[in-house]
Amino acid sequence: ETGVTQTPRHLVMGMTNKKSLKCEQHLGHNAMYWYKQSAKKPLELMFVYSLEERVENNSVPSRFSPECPNSSHLFLHLHTLQPEDSALYLCASSQDWGTSYEQYFGPGTRLTVT
Amino acid sequence: TQLLEQSPQFLSIQEGENLTVYCNSSSVFSSLQWYRQEPGEGPVLLVTVVTGGEVKKLKRLTFQFGDARKDSSLHITAAQPGDTGLYLCAGADYGGSQGNLIFGKGTKLSVKP
C-alpha cells in the first residue's frame, strides 16, 4: 500500500451507534489531519496532529473523538452522531505541520447517519 | 474570517473548449494551492503558487497568482473528458494559526466528449 488509505470507504450508522474511522499513511509523514467535506460547503478542518500530539481542534463537537496512536495511524471515533454529520470524511498527511508542506489526501469515508 | 470564493460553481463544456476558473478573497495568503478531486476520491494537489504574479504551467493547465496574493485563476486549454472533476483552491494562512489551509467550495467541471 502506498500513500494515504482510509477504511471503511462507506459507513451507514444509526444515531445511537459507535463506530471508528481509520486512516493510515505510508509516507513517513509527521502531521495528519481530519477534514469534513459536506455538499455546498468548503472542506472543514477538524483536527490536526503533529508528531502524535493534537495541535488543532476547530470547535468540533465532542461526539467526534480523534486518536493518533503513532505517526502512521489516525482514528476518528464516532458516537451519538446526528444526521447533519453525514458527509465525506477525509484524512490527509504532510511531512510536517505547516502550510509550506503539501498535504496528501486519502480517498475518504462516505458516512451516512440515519 | 478568511474566505475563498470560487467561481463558477459549476461548468459544463465540450471537449476541446478552453475555460478559466477563479478563486478570490479579500485576504492575503502566503501561498495558494490548487487541487483536483475526482468522484469517490480525495483531492490531489496540482500546484502551489507562492509569489505574487507567479504563473505556473502544468501541460494544458495554467495557474496564476494575483499580484496582491488575494486571488488566483486556473486556465485549461483544449479541455478533455479526463479533466472532469472538482477543482479546489486552498490558501495558506497569512499570519494566522500555524499550518492550516482555507479551502474554497470548489468548481465542478464536466467535460463532455
How would you describe this protein?
The complex is a heterodimer of chains A (about 110) and B (about 110). Chain A is mainly beta and about 110 residues long. Chain A has no helices and eleven strands. In chain A, strands 2, 4, 5, 6, 9, 10 and 11 form a seven-stranded mixed sheet that branches. Chain A has a four-stranded antiparallel sheet with strand order 1-3-8-7, with no helix packed on it. The radius of gyration of chain A is 13 Å and the shape is globular. The model of chain A has no long low-confidence stretch (mean pLDDT about 90). Chain B is mainly beta. The model of chain B has no long low-confidence stretch (mean pLDDT about 90). The interface of A and B includes residues 92 and 105 of A.
Strands, helices and their partners?
The complex is a heterodimer of chains A (114) and B (113).
Chain A: E1 4-7, E2 10-13, E3 18-25, E4 31-37, E5 44-50, E6 53-57, E7 64-70, E8 73-79, E9 87-94, E10 104-105, E11 109-113
Parallel strand pairs in A: 2-11
Antiparallel strand pairs in A: 1-3, 3-8, 4-5, 4-9, 5-6, 7-8, 9-10, 9-11
Chain B: E1 5-7, E2 10-14, E3 19-24, E4 32-37, E5 44-49, E6 55-58, E7 61-65, E8 71-76, E9 85-92, E10 101-103, E11 107-112
Parallel strand pairs in B: 2-11
Antiparallel strand pairs in B: 1-3, 3-8, 4-5, 4-9, 6-7, 7-8, 9-10, 9-11
